[in-house]
Amino acid sequence: MKTDEINKVVDEMSLSENIELADIPDIELYMEQVTGFIDDRLKNLKRDSSEKTLTKTMINNYTKLGILMPPKNKKYSKDHMILMLLVYYLKQVLSLDDIKALIAPILNDMSTTEDDVIPLEDIYSIFLELKSLEFEDFKQDIEEKYNVIRAKTNEVSQEEADIKEKAELFLTVIMLIAKAHANKRLAEKIIDKFFK
């Protein structure tokens, strides 16, 4: 497999697509509107079409766990939506207990957002900026590591080209898992040491 084919797969992941602050409705929405909006806007991140991005049950659980402020008159504000989006990304790696520990000191009192240490909109804007920077670094890192993998498997004969390609892809997956594991462990250690 060529490096440009790996780059194409990386681009297909839609990691650079974001729900910008300006895209989030600044009016209060009912739960069905919230789930519909987020599900529609994050549909490119789904592994398959049957996967649900956000459900009513998830929202209710986040509220019960104290990760999300209770709705006002069954309606969710822009702050609710921002927090749900952040939880969506955090949940890909962290447990709900870790997410609660991480969010609690930043949001202080979950019943209001007026006394937040850093305003939720600022946190979300910084998150989007860091996410974009990480994606650019990610693309470059994958390309460099894939080239190293290809160089290490170069000695396989031409007759075994199909096996060589599978070996390169296998090693690429193993490298990605190792990197994801290291990142996850570091995030957990930071939460354990400074947030619990």
Nutshell version of this structure?
With 196 residues, the chain is mostly helical. It has helices spanning 3-12, 31-41, 56-65, 78-91, 96-107, 120-152, 161-194, and strands at residues 29-30, 75-76. It has a two-stranded antiparallel sheet.
Would you mind describing this structure in some detail?
The protein is mostly helical and 196 residues long. The protein has one domain. Helices cover 63% and strands 2% of the residues. It has 7 helices and 2 strands. It has helices spanning 3-12, 31-41, 56-65, 78-91, 96-107, 120-152, 161-194, and strands spanning 29-30, 75-76. α1 (3-12) runs antiparallel to α6 (120-152), α4 packs parallel to α6 (120-152) and α6 (120-152) runs antiparallel to α7. The longest helix has 34 residues, at 161-194. Pfam families: DUF1836. This is DUF1836 domain-containing protein. InterPro entries: DUF1836.
Alpha carbon gyration radius? 20 Å
Helix count?
Answer: 7
Largest sheet, spatial ordering of strands = 1-2
Instruction: Give the total of domains.
Output: 1
The pLDDT mean sits at: 88
Number of strands: 2
**SS strand fraction:** under 5%
| Largest sheet data | 2 strands, antiparallel
The parts where pLDDT drops under 50 for at least 5 residues are: none
Classify the helix fraction into a percent range: 55-70%
The coarse silhouette is elongated
Order of helices and strands: HEHHEHHHH
Structural class: mainly alpha
Instruction: Please give the alpha-carbon distance between the first and last residues.
Output: 45 Å
